[in-house]
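tool=predict chain=A
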Amino acid sequence: MGDWHSIHLKILYEVLGWVAFVAWSISFYPQIIMNFRRKSVVGLNFDFVILNLTKHSSYLIYNVVLFFSTTVQAQYRHKFGSNQMIPVAANDVAFSTHAVLLTAFTLFQIFIYERKTQRFSKVAITIVCIVWLSAAVCVFIGIHRHSWLWLISVFNTIQVVMTVIKYVPQAFMNFRLKSTDGFSIGNILLDLLGGVTNYGQMTVQSVDQKSWVNFYGNIGKTLLSLVSIFFDILFIIQHYVLYPAKKKKDELPIQSSS
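tool=predict ok
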């Protein structure tokens, strides 16, 4: 890693990073808990989950390789400058690992809880198959050419594209049903906090290094924050403004007629 010019900015960087990690990590639990309490996944879009799993798996590969591989780090510095800091922190690796496990568990809940007529769409399944088939081809090319930085950049690109795509099915489902019932807003609020602090972490690093290569050198992380924030705000508007939860009749007190 490169040297920090300001110890205060370094501390702020670490704090923001771990706040993002905690917020994003906890954000998986409200949906899991809601599914468990209801013994149902009705209202949760299945395509959102399977696309999210592909996204986090790709992001995990990118973070782990860039954080631990000295060979890939050398290629990164050769491309962006020998004094540049690696744009992946320990909290990124920890978050990705946790995200894959929790998303996989949510997928498991889909198969064991009530789901009525909901199912995975053929479009989502096709997208996932194409993504991993393409990734396999890129792995073959990357190994042959020893283009390790290019190869993990492919996985980084995959996670960015999946981030954009994954929110659409849930947002459209909320619009079609005119309801967000079954979809945890706690997940979204925590995800928004994580996105904002993650973006702040990158900004702090760029200010300290007096270079914005941290943003375009890790464009995936940059777009991840911006796209996540946009859709989180959309979901918040859907939940609190457009389709506020309606009280069920059986929850209202029964008044006896005189």
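The chain has ten helices and no strands. The two ends are 77 Å apart (CA to CA).
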